[in-house]
Amino acid sequence: MKVYKLLVIFVCILCTSCNMNNPKESSSTTQNTNVTTKEDTAYFAKNEKYALYLPDTEKLAQEIQEFIYWEKNTAIERDEKEQCTIFRTLKEEKCLDKEIQMHFYMRECDVSEMDEGVHNFYNIIVTFPQLENLSFYSFEYNARGLSSDYDYGYGAWFDEDIDMDISAAKLEKEKWFQKQYSLVGETKMTISSETSTQLCTLENRFKNGEKDKIIADIKKTIQKEYKDAKNLVVYVRDFLPGDEGLQGKVVDLNMTGKYDMPLYWIYSLIQYSDEKMENFDSVIWGTHYSTAYSGAGQPDYNPTVKELKKAARQERDAVDASKCIYACHIENGNLYSLMDEEAFPEKIEL
Length: 350
What we know:
The chain is an alpha+beta fold. It contains 7 helices and 19 strands. Strand 14 and strand 15 form a beta hairpin. It is globular and about 55 Å long. The two termini are about 25 Å apart.
């Protein structure tokens, strides 16, 4: 059961596969263009059974804007060119410091038939209709808010096959899209290039002490998972209250054979014990090897151990540990924290 559950979790995180090709509209959902009000906050849609409350257009736009700043400031790659962020894309499209038009669409994804630990959410489609080179982003918005696990131009969210290069304007005119998704609203947004002066408040929406509890469980899980590791480093990226998964990378520096994998991506679950996601339960650890080092689609791929060791060191050096929510080096079963380089190595017995 545990193996099956981890498989389901892995598929959900990788492919955001939650019956989205055949979504069910929950009968408990209330949705209309006349926003409802709860606790002095306006909502476009709600599902009280799962504690889902989708904000109105302006509030949602504010959260997306905060997320763009948060994502850039928490990117763990040292080289900005390697940071696959919305901010970088907007910068490349010369859209910073200018007003851009955004449209928001939504539908509810019902995942009640899947294994426990996966929760209902709203699939939010954000389009940029005035920009020819930008199409759409797909976000998840669950009972705890916006998730950092999003997709750009990802057609698997839809029941219909689409051209991956479809423009936002064309997508919005598709009858099947209009039938599947409801328009939340339209607004304009300006993303400032001076992101260091912006307050990123999304991560502050955890309950008191909750984030520390999750991080403590991450440490405990890593210690258990890699108690026999010879030489590897683990980098965990910061996460939001709406995240059900962790992101980051594990670099194995102990290359001894040409089939060893120097890099693994973290695909781990932050599990909650209830359908409203009110109570944190545990972290379920999971990784997947990087296909870049698997030889997939590379018939002449035949690296030497020396080349793999070099690749592992490059992957390690590409990460800024100070940007991680947690980072450690494990050598011969002993864990050394990388969070405070002045105190390194602080030995922690596993």
